[in-house]
Amino acid sequence: MVSNGKAAEHPAASGPRTARRSSRIEGIRAASPDKSISHRAIMLAGMAQGISHIEGLLESADVLATAGAVRALGANVERTGDGQWQVKGAPQWRSPDGDLDLGNSGTGVRLLMGAAARFDLTARFTGDVSLSSRPMERVLAPLRLMGVTTIAADGGRLPVTLNGSTRLNAITYTPPVASAQVKSAILLAGLGAMGETVVIEPEATRAHTETLAPLFGADMTMERDGAGLVARVRGGKALHAADVHVPGDPSSAAFPLAAGLVAGTGPVTVTGVMTNPARFGLYRVLEMMGADISITPAGSRAGEALADITVRPGTLKGVQVEPHIAPSMIDEYPILSVIAAFAEGVTHMTGLAELRAKESDRLAASAALLAANGVKVELGEDSLTVHGMGQGDVPGGGLVKTLHDHRLAMAGLVLGLGAKDPVTVDDVAMIATSYPGFFDDMAALGADIA
Ligand code: S3P
């Protein structure tokens, strides 16, 4: 039994990589485990009474950073096998001895600030250069309304010192941005507030916290309201241990499936992909683009429906991607932009202001990625237009700046698999934050990435 809490994986790839047209891209891979659910499972187990088992945890740098932080807050978090984790929760978290370094992970840091808020502790949160440039005030403002005190660096950035309280106020809050991270931070704090905390979302974002927390005994509910969602949590209920089997990540599955669409020589299948509608926007857009895609139900895990998804190469057409779909595919715009380059006609994506607050300014960076590879794009304040060149006609040959952003690195490599000339990305290290099996999966499908 391995008990040091570290995944015994081969060392993560780093430095530049070049992807080129490959003689074969086809095959079947199991989906990489979902990042959002992995973070939440560790956090909830870490504050529950008893021993929880998590199966198929995503052992990526982001999730391992969360596991390390939850351990520093008092829980016993152990790796017992491949993707198998055992967590003995600490129903009262304590002040950690050192900083809580969440690396590259916005989900890790924002959700943990909410989760830690209801305890009598002081914690200082830090992160890497990308995370340290991202806005934290969106989470700190509602947490302060609930009763925590915070000290942040200029502009509401990390490092953030948070003083929690065992006497939090319940609040009713409508986040000014559509953000599952903001919603989840408030709900996790609300687990310890006096009364009912309500988060109102005019546009629903992923409801993974709302789905998972009740498995651990939380009094948390959600109600759909048109395109929106109202989530409620009543504070004071003790959490108990639970077992969670993590479903496959639709955001990671997008990369091998995109490779199949733009560079496939036969079918590419990814099995066990979560089809939660709040995460499935990309696949709906691919259908609109005329992609040859089949989605076959494949049971469920942790209350989430799964499917095996198969794509085949074929002609794609440019589409209009409306703002209302953005919350359900917020992480997928870099890879959609790449796919759009291989479509015929123009793809116009709007309502993308939030992309500027991701691991990088993903809106500008996606435009730069395509422009560097001979694709005509127009970048707006909150929109991106891609002039598709059709299958086989994307020039490539450029260098992609990944800006510490895992999804840009993977999108750049997929572009290279279908482009006329090889595409180099400057650094692939960040891919390990979300999809540590990326290179293995792509190699198994035949992708030429060296
Ligand atoms: C996530 C929410 C999204 C997403 C991130 C994961 C989550 O961020 O971009 O990768 O697990 O709650 P926002 O909620 O800030 O949009």
Structure description:
- The chain is an alpha/beta fold and 450 residues long.
- It folds into two domains: 17-34 and 247-449, Enolpyruvate transferase domain (UDP-n-acetylglucosamine1-carboxyvinyl-transferase, Chain, Alpha-beta prism), CATH 3.65.10; 35-235, UDP-n-acetylglucosamine1-carboxyvinyl-transferase, Chain.
- It has twelve helices and 26 strands.
- It has helices at 35-46, 61-72, 106-116, 137-146, 180-190, 208-212, 250-263, 281-288, 333-341, 362-371, 406-418, 438-445, and strands spanning 17-20, 27-30, 51-55, 76-81, 84-88, 100-101, 122-126, 149-153, 157-163, 168-169, 172-173, 193-194, 196-201, 220-225, 228-234, 243-245, 268-274, 292-301, 304-312, 320-321, 344-350, 377-379, 383-389, 399-400, 423-425, 448-449.
- A four-stranded mixed sheet has the order 24-25-1-26. It has a four-stranded mixed sheet with strand order 2-17-19-18. The chain has a four-stranded mixed sheet with strand order 4-5-3-16, with helices on one face.
- Helix 1 (35-46) runs parallel beside helix 3 and helix 3 packs parallel to helix 5 (180-190).
- The longest helix has 14 residues, at 250-263.
- Residues 1-9 have low confidence and may be disordered.
- It binds shikimate-3-phosphate.
- Keywords: Amino-acid biosynthesis, Aromatic amino acid biosynthesis, Cytoplasm, Transferase.
- Its EC number is 2.5.1.19.
- It catalyses: 3-phosphoshikimate + phosphoenolpyruvate = 5-O-(1-carboxyvinyl)-3-phosphoshikimate + phosphate.
- This is 3-phosphoshikimate 1-carboxyvinyltransferase.
